[in-house]
Specification:
The structure is a single chain. The chain is mostly helical. The chain has one domain: Ammonium transporter AmtB like domains (Ammonium transporter fold, Orthogonal Bundle), CATH 1.10.3430. About 65% of the residues lie in helices and about 0% in strands. The chain has 15 helices and 2 strands. The protein has a two-stranded antiparallel sheet with strand order 1-2.
């Protein structure tokens, strides 16, 4: 039977997750140069439209439809056929099926938007739309089904509470492929690529943090103790990730930065995502500290390497998804969440191996398919990358005939 409290909670959580996409747009847009602000925002914002269309007709049924060989859902719910106000017997028995669908839609929307930070300031808008739509069909939907929709990885015992694998690792692996194929921005290494508005980035980070309570807390699919556990772990990891990143900046460069604070918070939030509903507060502290430390050094190494992951999708989201998924294999406790599993510290080393297996499978699959898709589009759509003169002018004028700041 439908529970009104659970229904109200997931309605609010779905709205919070939707808010994360505009938050991400602001977070990314503040870090690019002024001539690319609107183009960067548009790449995230348009996903609300493109992916929702895809989700209605094939995305939801591919992800959560009746299983076909452990690999994909069938098309029996094409166009949301049979998805109504009654509860789902399979996924959420106390809320309307349509509410579960729209909540999951918000996850599908933000995932390809995350990838855009890797190729910020240099991809053409048309090929970007084709890539995002096709990527969602070929990567997001299958991986979502494998883990959350009754597919083979879930059957093997791989756990992902709110998207460390499904959201963060898939987008991080796609980001690696995108940077390899598009190459660095024009002028990297001798021009300065300074964030044009750090207040905008901090505002975006705050909105993301706020939305993450719906992202992780709502993944309990009920207003219960597990939701409280996930909510608490989310905040703890975000604040410890920020503290660790800022502390390392202070030690390394003698000056803590606002960009470091925002980056550390997002690293902690992303890293705790797969584990949030399965761990206690102390484990969340450790995960946040690991996230702040590991992601800080990953970004530092990237900045010296010439590998132009423009806005650190790989070093924060990709690496965060990996660390969080492995930490789940270490810290998980059935005493906290009986629907989960015991991890290494509770005497179950096999579960850690299962989580590592999930990381390898999802990472390799997402990278290979993303690389192939981007390569095909690069060869058939007149190239993925902006023309050199358009890159100099900037996305705002070249792609949208607009300017963010009129003087």
């Amino acid at each position: 039977m439908i529970n009104s409290g659970d229904t109200a909670f997931i309605l609010v959580s779905a709205a919070l997750v939707l808010l994360m996409t505009p938050g991400l747009a602001l977070f990314y847009a503040g870090m690019v140069r002024g001539k690319n602000v609107l183009g960067t925002i548009m790449q995230s914002f348009i996903m609300i439209s493109i992916i929702t269309f895809e989700w209605i007709y094939i995305g939801y049924t591919m992800s959560f439809g009746p299983d076909v060989g452990g690999l994909i859902g069938n098309l029996s719910m094409f166009g949301l056929k049979g998805v109504g106000a009654e509860p789902s017997d399979t996924y959420a028995t106390t809320i309307p099926h349509m509410l579960f669908m729209i909540y999951q839609c918000m996850f599908a929307v933000i995932t390809p938007a995350l990838i855009t930070g890797a190729f910020a300031e240099r991809m053409r808008f048309g090929p970007f739309i084709i890539f995002s739509l096709t990527w969602s069909i070929l990567v997001y939907n299958p991986v979502c089904h494998w883990i959350w929709g009754g597919g083979w990885l879930g059957a093997k015992g791989v756990l992902d509470f709110a998207g460390g694998l499904v959201v963060h690792l898939t987008s991080g692996a796609a980001a690696v492929a995108a940077v390899m194929i598009l190459g660095p921005r024009k002028g990297l290494g001798h021009d300065k690529f300074m964030p044009h508005s750090l207040p905008m980035t901090l505002l975006g980070a705050g909105i993301l943090w706020f939305g993450w309570f719906g992202f992780n807390g709502g993944s309990a699919l009920a207003a219960d103790g597990i939701a409280v556990t996930a909510f608490t772990a989310t905040h703890i990891a975000g604040m410890t990730g920020m503290a660790m990143w800022v502390g390392l900046e202070w030690l390394t460069y003698k000056q803590p930065t606002t960009l470091g604070a925002a980056s550390g918070a997002i690293a902690g939030l992303a890293t705790v995502t797969p584990a949030a509903g399965f761990i206690g507060p102390s484990a969340a502290v450790i995960i946040g500290l690991l996230a702040g430390c590991c992601c800080f050094f990953a970004v530092t190494i990237k900045n010296k390497s010439g590998f132009d992951d423009s806005l650190d999708v790989i070093g924060i989201h990709g690496l965060g998804g990996v660390i969080g998924t492995i930490c789940l294999g270490i810290f998980a406790s059935k005493a906290i969440n009986p629907a989960g599993n015991d991890g290494l510290l509770a005497g179950n080393a096999a579960f850690l191996g299962t989580q590592i297996f999930g990381v390898v499978v999802v990472g390799v699959y997402a990278f290979v398919v993303s690389f192939a898709l981007l390569k095909i589009l690069d060869l058939t759509c007149g190239g993925l990358r902006l023309a050199e003169e358009d890159e100099v002018v900037g996305l705002d004028q070249a792609a949208h005939s607009e300017t963010a700041y009129n003087r």
